[in-house]
Amino acid sequence: MSRKPAHVKTALSLAADGVPVLPLRRGKVPFGNCPSCVGNACGGRPNMKTPGPCHCPEVCHAWAAATTDPDVITSPAWAAAWRRAVCVGYHPGGAGLTVVDLDNADAAAWARATLPATRTVATTRGEHWIYRGTMASRNAVRPGVDIKSAMAYARYLGRGIGPLTDLPEAVRALAAAKPATTPPAMPTSVAPAGDGACPHRAPTYLDRGVEMAVERITEARSAIHATVYRVFLAVLSRHGRCGCLTDAHVARLFTAAQAKGESLRHCMDAWANARTRLGL
């Protein structure tokens, strides 16, 4: 048998320990969905809270692609992704874990002064603190601190040092919603501006435009906030004045952005800012 790439060996070792894994490409982000799954058109995977199963053999649906099945990890469908992969990712929640991602020295110093000690892994700029237990994932719970657990992925950087300890309430409290804050609702259909005349020659023109926008968000390697705003701006500039955008179109854009780690509130802000800039 030929020697397996180092990333595949690491993935198989983690999978044998019950840790769901997936390849990460340049930018340390998941691979984009295949053409059949772009925009979640396939219905998503069973654990993505979207209707219907997805039986796609490709590395699709970001964190939901993570698996412990060695046959999938070594399958021909995943081979091309492993050849392009820059590192191995994993789904902490699927392994019963929570990662507190400390992005800089100040955040790490705060954790050492505030949180119970647990297993730590050095990162390029900070540390991962890994706890036993799962919770909802949430980015930017405080400066330089993200929480990665359910419905999220983390980069594998080694086994780390120190014993695992149970997830403390102090970490859960970081992600707790503020009682006085009401989450924003998803935008409904876009009200037309101007005379509402529709320049589209066929519905497929709009559908393809939204599909390309979703692909652009999904394939973004960095500057996700800026990319989401620019894509929203482009879609609204092209399709926002005639009232053709429907709830389904907007939901596809928001789903793609949230799959890249954007919060619903960030999506709402980017959408509102794009509309304001265009005078819609």
Describe this structure in words.
The chain is α+β, with helices and mostly antiparallel strands and 280 residues long. Helix content is 36%, strand content 14%. Strands 4, 5, 6, 7, 8 and 10 form a six-stranded mixed beta sheet that branches. The protein has a four-stranded antiparallel beta sheet with strand order 2-1-3-9. Strand 1 and strand 2 (29-30) form a beta hairpin.
Keywords:
14% strand, 280 residues, 9 helices, 6-stranded mixed sheet, alpha+beta
Low-confidence stretches: 178-184, 191-196
In helices, the fraction of residues equals 25-40%
How far do the termini sit from each other? 61 Å
Please provide the count of β strands: 10
SSE topology string? HEEHHEEHEEEEEEHHHHH
Structural class: alpha+beta
Sheet-strand content, in percent, reads 5-15%
Report the C-alpha radius of gyration, rounded: 20 Å
**Overall pLDDT metric:** 83
Outline, from the CA principal axes?
globular
Counting DSSP H or I runs of 4 or more residues, the number of helices is 9
- Biggest beta-sheet profile: 6 strands, mixed
Concise summary:
The chain is an alpha+beta fold. Helix content is 36%, strand content 14%. It has helices at 6-16, 70-73, 76-84, 105-114, 169-175, 203-218, 224-239, 247-259, 264-278, and strands spanning 21-25, 29-30, 87-90, 97-102, 119-122, 127-132, 138-142, 145-148, 154-155, 165-166.
Please outline the helices and strands.
Elements: H1 6-16, E1 21-25, E2 29-30, H2 70-73, H3 76-84, E3 87-90, E4 97-102, H4 105-114, E5 119-122, E6 127-132, E7 138-142, E8 145-148, E9 154-155, E10 165-166, H5 169-175, H6 203-218, H7 224-239, H8 247-259, H9 264-278
Parallel strand pairs: 6-10
Antiparallel strand pairs: 1-2, 1-3, 3-9, 4-6, 4-8, 5-6, 7-8
Helix pairs in contact: 6-7, 6-8, 7-9
